[in-house]
């Protein structure tokens, strides 16, 4: 789509400039090609910067090219001053566009207001054509939704596999490797979804909906907690008290996906397990203390993970529905 837009923009910009009988009308095609950025906001930013930079470049050229008769020296000095000013005000990306519009002035004697207005007209046509075409960006919600589904699927898989490990007490390297593969897939889906969301937001000029950005941030925080939970299972699974109850809780959580906000009862179940652990006999050995602390840590991470989802559902998701 970007290739097609670039070709159409260049052709139409040149056609408009030519129909207005502007000098150097072909330059409109080159400048318009430079205006096609990856997102709508980036295009608008580039168009504004290019306009300001070209005004500065033309003013410099008017003075330098008039005072210095030798064209190569005049352009070299112009380039030195322009680059220095561009670096000073962070307009480095505009050098090519400004140079393209300035170069014809080297052979125009004298440089009149008419030729300066001509170059500004060529710039305006190119910038506006590029802006109009780059307002038509593809809708990225389908790609974002695809990664949301991937995140949800991997989350459910990781929770189910952790629950199965807790109930079975399996500590094989193969089982651990499988879980880490799904955790890696979860992280990849979150990262890709975050990237698509950032690109989608950069294409929206007036939409302030932060739902997807907040969603992937919440899932990324949950991933970090799941990773800590898996590290516990890798090292202390067989020693954890009440692991059967924790495993059943995790498996039941994956079955409650379709229900309306099942998190509060799940949080209550976790708190009951925490209360049961706290009510156990005081550990008599260092090993018993370590086992209870490990189980409690796992439940703390699990509870924190659910609280993140609950807060998101009550605050961000509810606001999105109401808007």
TrEMBL record:
Keywords: Cell membrane, Membrane, Transmembrane, Transmembrane helix. The keyword Cell membrane applies. It comes from the Bacteria. One of its GO terms (cellular component) is plasma membrane. The chain crosses the membrane at residues 12-34, 46-65, 71-89, 96-116, 122-140. Residues 146-306 form the Putative aromatic acid exporter C-terminal domain. InterPro entries: ArAE_1, ArAE_1_C, ArAE_1_C_sf, UPF0421. It is a multi-pass membrane protein. It is found in: Cell membrane. PANTHER family: MEMBRANE PROTEIN, MEMBRANE PROTEIN-RELATED. This is Putative aromatic acid exporter C-terminal domain-containing protein.
């Amino acid at each position: 789509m970007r290739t097609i837009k670039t070709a159409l923009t260049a052709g139409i910009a040149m056609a408009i400039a030519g129909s207005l009988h502007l000098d150097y009308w072909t330059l409109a095609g080159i400048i318009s090609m430079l205006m096609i950025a990856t997102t709508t906001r980036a295009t608008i930013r580039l168009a504004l910067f290019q306009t300001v930079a070209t005004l500065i470049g033309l003013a410099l050229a008017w003075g330098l090219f008039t005072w210095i008769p030798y064209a190569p020296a005049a352009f070299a000095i112009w380039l030195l001053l322009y680059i220095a000013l561009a670096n000073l005000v962070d307009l480095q990306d505009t050098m090519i566009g400004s140079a393209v519009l300035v170069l014809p002035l080297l052979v125009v004697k004298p440089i009149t207001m008419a030729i300066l207005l001509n170059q500004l007209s060529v710039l305006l046509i190119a910038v506006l054509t590029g802006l109009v075409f780059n307002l038509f960006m593809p809708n990225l919600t389908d790609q974002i939704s695809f990664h949301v589904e991937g995140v949800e699927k991997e989350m459910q898989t990781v929770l189910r596999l952790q629950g199965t490990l807790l109930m079975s007490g399996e500590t094989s390297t193969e089982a651990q490797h499988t879980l880490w593969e799904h955790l890696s897939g979860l992280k990849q889906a979150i990262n890709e979804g975050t990237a698509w969301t950032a690109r989608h937001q950069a294409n929206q000029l007036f939409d302030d909906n932060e739902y997807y950005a907040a969603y992937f941030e919440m899932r990324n925080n949950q991933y970090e907690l799941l990773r800590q939970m898996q590290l516990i299972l890798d090292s202390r699974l067989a020693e954890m008290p009440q692991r059967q109850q924790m495993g059943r809780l995790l498996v039941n959580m994956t079955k409650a996906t379709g229900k309306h906000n099942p998190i509060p009862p799940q949080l209550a179940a976790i708190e009951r397990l925490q209360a049961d652990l706290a009510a156990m006999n005081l550990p008599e050995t260092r090993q018993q203390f370590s086992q209870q602390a490990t189980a409690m840590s796992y439940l703390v991470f699990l509870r924190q993970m659910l609280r993140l989802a609950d807060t998101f559902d009550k605050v961000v998701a509810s606001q999105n529905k109401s808007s």
